[in-house]
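[[Local backbone shapes]]
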Amino acid sequence: MTYTSLAALFVLTIAAMPHSFAKPLWLTDMDQSALVYKNVPGIDINAATRQLLLEHMSGHQDSITIVNNERAFQMLKANTLACTGNKVRNSERESFAYFSDVPQLIFPGMRLYMLKATAETAGIAGLQHDKRHSFAEISTRLPRSRIGVVGGRNYGEPLQAIFDQLAGRNRIYTRTGNDMSAAAMLDMLANGRVELVVEYPNVVQHYSEALNHAVELVSVEISEAAEYTGGYIMCSKNEQGKMLVQAYSNAIRLASKDKRYLQAHLRWFDVSSHHKVTALYNKVYNTTFEHEAFNP
């Protein structure tokens, strides 16, 4: 049976369920028409790729609900029939949700960002930027620095372990509440309210330009961050959620072969990084796209 017929079968199965089952929710932290921080539009790669997935899920219907990550996880833990996209996969989250077999999105690994003045003070500005360096070691060079993190976000187990250690020394500032965006955290970095931020390169580029930051940033590739991060689709851990996540998995396999799915990624990256992103995309999705063909 082909991926197309499998996806159609799962969607038809869900559609045929008794009316006692509620329409599934799609949980997202971003309204496509909303401005996330200081009139700056967000990065809507999650929504853009999901629209392409839905082309392979004929008949699928859900209701979009805007919630932050913490609330989304609470709803999944409560066994609400729901899915959410672009989430890091780990063992703790697997205890209360099913994950797509393949990632919905991919990003080159996170980097450590700081003001140029901070890097010069710690002797970091001279580090080789084509090599990976230890975040734990760099943090010891700046013993009074505070690291800004976004509440409810997962940075991967190696980084989370370091954050947990530093939190006991009052070196972690966690942004919580209604505004937990990366844009707000980068604004804090630019204004000197935190000294270090771990973030994706495309996110820093997008929001730094949109916020007109005049300060110069230095970034370092860190060994505690994965070479790339996959953002998966999570669905509630019940039979309906299991079928939904399988339908999404099949749709990802189909949609990723479409150059529009690659373009949905590339539009959020600087042209200088398109070669690296395309190579990573080909590796993860087993495709053979050439980066020169795509300049969104």
Observations:
- The radius of gyration is 20 Å.
- The domain at 110-221 is CATH 3.40.190.10 (D-Maltodextrin-Binding Protein; domain 2).
- The chain has two domains: 3-106+230-293, 110-221.
